[in-house]
């Protein structure tokens, strides 16, 4: 293509040069003509000047002859020459072109006129006295001739100079024209010869290109024959232009078709899987003819007993003017792919059935495990509020711990199920990180104290008071990490640090770190620590237990909230888990207080009636006991049918609805309540089914809230208060806080009764020792506090804790534990003072009760 361009360019250059030569020749000829005209003009002026000079000689001779002879013939000849001289002078004036020529010729004409006037005067003058006078007059007349001739000489010299210049200019123009013609012709010849050379090369390349095209065409045919797909090319008329080997093999006896129409008239095709003839207008070839590429995958070809499913495609090919030139059709055998697809569908159906079986298994497992757990945890919570011996209390705590550990495993499995399904929901409510962490510290303190581990919690004061997020998931993350730290640490300390890493655009990045001095994690295990069911070794699993799901759930919870988690660990020295989670900053006034509602004033306790729809007798008894302890009256309905009957007869303030029941489940019962009875009473789902989408399903059918079994009494209490929005009796948790009213102090002497075998005298003696030693220890504690000796306060608290536990005054035990913890880390003096003051007040309230008990065991006189 470039060679052709250069050929055209060179030919065009040669033609252009010839045109320029012609233009230059034309201009040169014009210059020569002009120059020659000037030369002719110069010759005419010179000729006229010569004629004037000759006529001057004639009139001078005529005047001298007349003066000397007086012959009248000379006068006639003078007049004739004078007329011709005037005519020649006028002709010369007509040829004057330049200003200098015109000036000199005007001066010449003036002198000629003066000379002729003087000559006529000399011819006609009669008073000339003698010949001398005539001669003098003739001399003046001749002097004027000299002046005129001098002027003519100047004119001639100027014209001779101009003539020489114009002749030279004419010769130069002629030479330049000749040179330009020669050079231009040579250049044009060279260019034309170069164009001829390039043309020859182009023809040679075209020849080699044709040979290469033929070779490429042959190679292309070989390649298309090697393609494992049938390819057929049709021209714009629909005639067959090319078919490859696979096409000929596929069509067998129909391979010698001449056009598309001939082929599919003799070989009909069908639509898979219906088996009807394939609609002509839907075939890819027809769409390609209209300029649109098309593809189908349900074309069935039948040749004899053989059936082949084809993937058919057609693509239009256009020329430079966008006119259809070819249609390329291709056919791929996808019969095996169809079989694979069928197998995949079967495998998919099997996987879906397996997933459904898994979900049903988890649902049943959840219900079957949570139902007894609900009873176990509920009744242990109730038992903790009754008088127990120390041994019974220890056994009860063991049962409670085991049941809660089992509940944790069940919850982990269900959380994994929710995460896998992408249905884990996150709340976005205001909460205080500081309050949440302080609550978690209280929850973790007993476990840490049992292993004599120091639990240190540090809170950054720069943390916003209130943030928006999911406090439940944050609690889950922290409890999981901190519980692991306590579990895998035999001695040392656990450090929990909560700090504000970055605040920007009403968003705070909260960094939470949990550091322990436990067994650590091996370097080869560390990259896989967040994998499901992964623990460091089988020894770890046997010794420490656990499902191996906790860290995987933590990692998923952090990631789903847009955070990140990192771990550093050295075997034998401990581990450091760091979590960073972003939260929106909220206004402090937005923090919801579930502890008070002002919609209904409190003037004595309003009787709250609750309908418990539950089929399990243990759960019925537990719910009745818990609600009764809260101050509510409860009625039981064993299933949905009985619940609807009771609702028709009586109104209730709240309904606790189980989901899985005989005759009518909780979902249908709720629909009947909302759509048939049209009752808007709050309904709280209370179910052991805590799987993916369960909460959303409950709310969708018309329930107001959701609580999983086994439930904590505090959780149930909050849900009930939230739904009723009335002021109700304060709920006292199983573990009495240090700021409980003094009238809640009580003693339980079952342990003393057991260890003394029921000997009242021995029991009285032991109580006497308590009454004697306790005031002394309290006094020492007060003195140590005055001296700001916190370590000593901790020692005295340790000494007092065991006697207090022996007499069953468990309400004050957490205070002694707190004092020991503060002493171990040299805690805040103000906090210690507050706790010591509370302990002394409690113990002073307790001592009279012990004295009364001692008196009862004294022998009567």
UniProtKB/TrEMBL annotation:
Topology versus the membrane: Multi-pass membrane protein
MF-aspect GO terms: ATP binding; phosphorelay sensor kinase activity
Cellular component GO terms held in the UniProt record: plasma membrane
UniProt cross-references to InterPro entries, sorted A to Z: CHASE3, CheY-like_superfamily, HATPase_C_sf, HATPase_dom, His_kinase_dom, HisK_dim/P_dom, HisK_dim/P_sf, HPT_dom_sf
Modified residues (4-aspartylphosphate): 658
Cross-referenced SMART domains: HATPase_c, HisKA, REC
Residues where Phosphohistidine is found: 798
This protein's UniProt keywords: ATP-binding, Cell membrane, Kinase, Membrane, Nucleotide-binding, Phosphoprotein, Transferase, Transmembrane, Transmembrane helix, Two-component regulatory system
TM spans (from-to): 6-23, 177-200
Subunit structure, interactors included: At low DSF concentrations, interacts with RpfF.
Name under which the protein is recorded: Sensory/regulatory protein RpfC
Source species of the chain: Siphonobacter curvatus
